[in-house]
Amino acid sequence: MRILLIEDDPQLSEALASFLRAKGFVVDTAGTLAQARATLPAAHWGAVLLDLHLPDGDGLSLLPLLQRQHPDSSVIVLTARDQITDRIRGLDAGADDYLVKPFDPEELLARLRAVERRRGGASGQGATLTLGALSVDLARDRVRVNGQAVELTAKEWALLRVMASRPERIHSRESLLDALYGFDDDTDSNTLEVFISNLRRKIGRERIQTLRGLGYRLAGDAGA
Amino acid sequence: MPTPARPPASLSARLSRSLVLWVCALWLMTALGTTWYVRTEVNDVYDSALSESAWRLLDLVSHEMDEHGASPVLGEAPPPRSGSFPLHLAPHHLIYQITSPDGRLLLRSADAPTEVLAPEVRYGFSEQGAWRVFSLTHPTRQARIHVADALQHRQHTQIDIVLSLLLPLLGLLPFLALLIRHITQRELASVGALADQIRERSDRNLSPLSSAGLPAELTVITERSNHLLQRLSGALDTERALAANAAHELRTPLATTRLRLQGVQALLGQQPTEVVQRELQHAMDSLAQLSRRTEKLLQMSRAESGAALARERVPLTRLAAAVAQEFWADPALLNRLQLQLPEHGEPEALGDFDALAIALRNLLENAARHAPQGPIVLGVQLPARLSVSDCGPGIPPERQADLLQRHHQQAQAATPPSTQAEGPLPRVAPQPGYGLGLSIVSTIIERQGGRLSLQSPAPGRTDPSHPGLCVTLDLLPAPAAPAPQTGQARGHS
């Protein structure tokens, strides 16, 4: 996967690029927003690692251009801003993930591999989510509960894939409905609840938690 | 339960009340002065009438005696007669008596008493019982004249005059109060507008106050306040910039060093050198510790900064969800951390979103560190309560107060360092506690007007070896009035 690293600190930029290259990624770097704007059209980026504290402006200001030019790229914000409102602002602006410096290199690696999984660039064991007795193989579209395979319809699978690909997130009703629109243009307001109910019946009622006013999330055995 | 303090009265109400009270007081003083003056004047007028009538009567008596050639005072006094003198010119309320010098009553008006009014007085005014009397002695004819009026009559006259002054004013008093209230409200409307302008702005709004339409005094206050707001805004911007720069300057080299060490370790992994590996691991452990301590110190500086004093509406379910999602990114906590929201209602607290997030983060880190097994429950309850409970070893009651002290080193070090492999997030890696975490929480909650309490065993826990700990944050509930959601409160998925 090709990565664009936008970081103004040359030492960190070099160290991070070396680390990622050693892990098999192709990495290009940019030290300013201007350099990043110039570099963006040069390749198809699988992921963009974006510092916010750049010498010529806020890194978030790059997101609209990035989303226009590379709608499939994942953006991981790497920043020293650790306030929860900074994180919410970053995610609301369109970033896919948010890591606070000094981050654990292994954690960054895990996030990048998750990006690869979501992009369908990886398969096998790394693409399997295990939550208690629930096992979701995103690469092979297989679901098991207590080792027993569960058959899902395409729509149920679409919902489960959205939740399983980002199990750490609370998924709003709107984002889950978006996942269904591609399958059924006649989706009405109760459709989501019907599919959630069907999914719960098949994988276990307690494995999809409803968070009133916020949305739904996958929960393990302890999350009921 | 103490009764809530009554809100202070508005400036216009206080001014109206004072003006009405002062007008009434001045009016009463004026009425008292007028009463005194009326009384003096009424007495003078009545005394003058008495005197004038007495002298006129004296002339009439002289004239009658001259005409009849007889003197009632020469020893053959006729029996007392009544009303024979033509005193029609005298006021009707007057009475008179004509006596001999030795006190025998010779003549009297019809409504005069039969007793001599002032037998001892030869000349001048005197008060005799219910009468005011003017006495006069004829210089040649041995006759004495007493002319009198009733004191009660004078009092009635005085009361009539005073009432005629007071009653119209009494009737006007309510209208006067309303008029004063209306005028003060109209004239002080600009003060109310300024108060509304200040009341309706949030703590973060440091934009200048509008001075349009304000009187000179308030314009000065507004201008000086705007100057202070501008300075405060500048100071806060500087503080934020310094904090951001400090975070950037501290964290960036830390991240670089970690990456370098990781790279060296990977290289050594290819050519194992046991001692170097161990030393390198120690260096990385120390660096991880330094990273955590840097983070805690930054959090503590934020907890003690002005940000922790903010009083904005914080939707607690959004706050808890945002923080929980940070921790769910750690696979070790994805299945352990549970978020429990209330079935009904939307708990909202007054405080600062970021500062409360720091508090929650510390509680969850502590729970993850000290309770490496079992569920961790992040709860949100009405009206404005957050709680974090775990299934760890708990805290004995005698140690709970110690825990809240900054720099207190928890002796708990039972968690083996090897469990760091549980998750990639350094902030939840099991390590001995620094004691800073809970004191950061305590500082934030104290500055936000809330209350921090510890409960061990945690509610519902019966296992004596792992009683668990429940930390509860009772925050200031936001007023029930609906308010627009802040940008911070927007959810994401």
Question: Concise description?
Answer:
Chain A starts with a strand and ends in a 6-residue tail after the last strand. Chain A contains eight helices and 13 strands. Chain A is 38% helix and 23% strand.
Shape of chain A: elongated
If strands are numbered along the chain, what order do they take across the biggest sheet of chain A?
A: 2-1-3-6-7
**What is the count of helical runs of chain B?**
10
* Global morphology of chain B: rod-shaped
Class from helix and strand fractions of chain B: alpha+beta
Rg from alpha-carbon coordinates of chain B: 49 Å
Please summarize the sheet with the most strands of chain A.
5 strands, parallel
Which chains have the largest interface?
A: A-B, 51 and 55 residues
Straight-line distance between termini of chain A: 37 Å
Number of helices of chain A: 8
Query: How is the main sheet of chain B built?
Result: 6 strands, mixed
- How widely separated are the two ends of chain B? 44 Å
Determine the mean pLDDT of chain A. 84
Contiguous runs where pLDDT drops below 50 for at least 5 residues of chain A = 121-125
Strand content of chain A: 15-25%
- Low-confidence segments of chain B, given as residue ranges, are 70-90, 406-434, 483-493
Oligomer: heterodimer
Q: Helicity level of chain A, as a percent range? A: 25-40%
**Radius of gyration computed on alpha carbons of chain A:** 19 Å
Order of helices and strands of chain A: EHEHEEEHEHEHEEEEHHHEE
Tell me about this structure.
The complex is a heterodimer of chains A (224) and B (493). With 224 residues, chain A is α/β, with parallel strands linked by helices. Chain A is built from eight helices and 13 strands. Chain A has helices at residues 10-22, 33-39, 63-69, 84-92, 105-119, 154-165, 173-181, 191-203, and strands at 2-6, 26-30, 47-51, 53-54, 57-58, 74-79, 97-100, 128-131, 134-137, 142-145, 148-150, 208-211, 215-218. In chain A, the strands form four sheets. Chain A has a five-stranded parallel sheet, with helices on both faces. Chain A has a four-stranded antiparallel sheet with strand order 8-9-10-11, covered by helices on one side. In chain A, α6 (154-165) packs across α8. The longest helix of chain A has 15 residues, at 105-119. Chain B has 493 residues and is α+β, with helices and mostly antiparallel strands. Chain B has ten helices and 13 strands. Chain B has helices at 11-68, 151-187, 189-200, 216-270, 274-303, 316-328, 331-334, 353-370, 397-403, 436-447; strands spanning 81-82, 95-99, 105-108, 124-128, 131-137, 144-150, 312-315, 337-340, 348-351, 376-381, 385-389, 451-455, 470-474. Chain B has a six-stranded mixed sheet with strand order 1-3-2-6-5-4. Chain B has a five-stranded mixed sheet with strand order 8-10-11-13-12. In chain B, strands 7-9 form a two-stranded antiparallel ribbon. In chain B, β10 and β11 form a beta hairpin. Chain B is rod-shaped, with a radius of gyration of 49 Å. Chain B starts with 10 loop residues before the first helix and ends in a 19-residue tail after the last strand. Chains A and B meet through α1, α4 and α5 of A and α4, α5, α6 and α8 of B.
